[in-house]
């Protein structure tokens, strides 16, 4: 690809890479009964200081009801605990359990090793260049589509 005329091929290559990385995540999370969405929520909860469900929804860029569904699944699996908010009886706080932290640590280790193996075909300089290019696209590129605008099928754009 010597010029910018074949952006379709570039898009296809990025999508194939994205799918491969998603398969790595699925394979790492599957033994723990977690989907990639549940894994992302578990990570957000583990990294935050007792977030509210609304905080998780905001961090994941999803609707509150969707976050509640994912959180309920994590609570049901014993990976997350929900406790009453001490100052707001309508709200709850979330906490990653010891089992949740163990699962997250194991999944991230497996995922990290598989991701490193995937990118091992790149020379160190190529790895650095690819990282820099992707960082630039994420920082400076147009916002990415999220959901259709009201009354249309076309997505609106938002940076994630």
UniProtKB/TrEMBL annotation:
<feature type="domain" description="HTH marR-type">
    <location>
        <begin position="7"/>
        <end position="139"/>
    </location>
</feature>
<dbReference type="GO" id="GO:0006950">
    <property type="term" value="P:response to stress"/>
</dbReference>
<dbReference type="InterPro" id="IPR000835">
    <property type="entry name" value="HTH_MarR-typ"/>
</dbReference>
<dbReference type="InterPro" id="IPR036388">
    <property type="entry name" value="WH-like_DNA-bd_sf"/>
</dbReference>
<dbReference type="InterPro" id="IPR036390">
    <property type="entry name" value="WH_DNA-bd_sf"/>
</dbReference>
<protein>
    <submittedName>
        <fullName>MarR family transcriptional regulator</fullName>
    </submittedName>
</protein>
<dbReference type="GO" id="GO:0003700">
    <property type="term" value="F:DNA-binding transcription factor activity"/>
</dbReference>
<feature type="region of interest" description="Disordered">
    <location>
        <begin position="140"/>
        <end position="160"/>
    </location>
</feature>
<dbReference type="Pfam" id="PF01047">
    <property type="entry name" value="MarR"/>
</dbReference>
<dbReference type="InterPro" id="IPR039422">
    <property type="entry name" value="MarR/SlyA-like"/>
</dbReference>
């Amino acid at each position: 690809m010597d010029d910018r005329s074949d952006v379709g091929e570039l898009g296809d290559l990025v999508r194939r890479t994205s799918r491969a990385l998603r398969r790595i995540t699925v394979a790492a999370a599957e033994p723990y009964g977690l989907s990639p969405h549940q894994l992302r929520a578990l990570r957000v909860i583990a990294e935050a200081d007792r977030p509210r469900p609304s905080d998780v929804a905001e961090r994941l860029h999803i609707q509150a009801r969707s976050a509640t569904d994912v959180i309920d699944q994590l609570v049901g699996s014993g990976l997350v605990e929900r406790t009453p908010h001490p100052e707001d009886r309508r709200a709850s706080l979330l906490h990653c359990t010891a089992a949740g932290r163990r699962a997250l640590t194991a999944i991230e280790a497996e995922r990290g090793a598989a991701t490193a193996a995937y990118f091992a075909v790149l020379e160190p300089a190529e790895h650095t260049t690819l990282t820099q290019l992707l960082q630039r696209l994420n920082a400076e590129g147009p916002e990415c589509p999220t959901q259709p605008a009201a009354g249309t099928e076309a997505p609106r754009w938002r940076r994630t």
